[in-house]
Design goal:
about 250 residues, 2 domains, globular, 9-stranded antiparallel sheet, 5 helices, TolA/TonB C-terminal domain, 4-stranded mixed sheet
Length: about 250
């Protein structure tokens, strides 16, 4: 079964904006190099699908419609710290793709309640999810995709790309395949701040579209960048970069 058919089978009929979703059982599915862990929340007409393909993890939502290609949001587990999350429409427009899939999946596996917010202000949409009583499908998928079940990088502080935080921005590195296909992309990277206002120990947390290499290109750019002199040293930060290809 192809990836598109597998995803369509999981949640082919979902198309509503959610307000509340109760607990749902998570299931696992595997076809070739694609592994899924998914849950359908009938009361909200929403499906949450974690996908590992060729070692790359994605978290998809179906049933939340956006009028724009990207939307800022937030996630909170067990009433704890609110985390920034950006959602992007998939190329076929059927899904929302999270920019921090491993972090969100670890939260779903360990929390007793989860809240997702899409947008801010009066028009914000909320999705309350009760994580599964049996988190085995989620944990098995994380392990199969080379992701740890716990990670200190989930606590990384978001570092904006505004001029107030940088003295030099690295060159824009465009992956060869992206240049050939004229495809723009994004990546979320966590790094440690070091002496001499450098970034070190960078790891790609997520990237899209999958397979183009925007994660590695973003790491190369960040290694050339320099932060403000007063930036605290040995602080774990999260940075989201967008690469536009004309």
């Amino acid at each position: 079964m192809k990836t598109s058919a597998l995803l369509g089978w999981v949640a082919a009929s979902l198309a509503a904006t959610p307000t509340l979703a109760q607990e749902a059982a998570w299931s696992a599915q595997e076809s070739g190099d694609v592994r899924l862990a998914y849950a359908v929340f009938p009361e909200a007409d929403v499906a949450m699908i974690a996908r590992c393909q060729s070692g790359t993890l994605e978290l998809l939502l179906q049933g939340v419609r956006l009028a724009v290609p990207e939307i800022e949001g937030a996630a909170q587990f067990d009433g704890g710290r609110v985390r920034d999350v950006k959602w992007t429409r998939s190329e076929d427009g059927r899904y929302l793709v999270a920019d921090r899939p491993a972090h969100l999946m670890r939260g779903m596996a360990s929390a007793s309640e989860a809240r997702f917010q899409f947008g801010f202000g009066d028009r914000a949409a909320m999705l309350d999810v009760a994580p599964p009583a049996d988190e085995t499908p989620i944990k098995d998928l994380l392990t199969a995709c080379g992701q740890p079940l716990t990670s200190a990088r989930d606590e990384a502080e978001f570092l904006p790309l505004g001029e107030d935080f940088w003295t030099r921005r690295g060159r824009v590195h465009i992956p060869a395949m992206a240049s050939r296909d004229h495809v723009s992309g994004w990546a979320v990277v966590t790094c440690m701040t070091r002496v001499h206002v450098m970034l070190d120990d960078c790891e790609v947390e997520a990237e899209g579209p999958v397979g183009y290499g925007f994660g590695r290109a973003s790491v190369n750019s960040l290694r050339e960048s320099r932060l403000r002199p007063d930036t605290p040293v040995d602080r774990l930060v999260t940075i989201r970069l967008t690469t536009l290809v004309e």
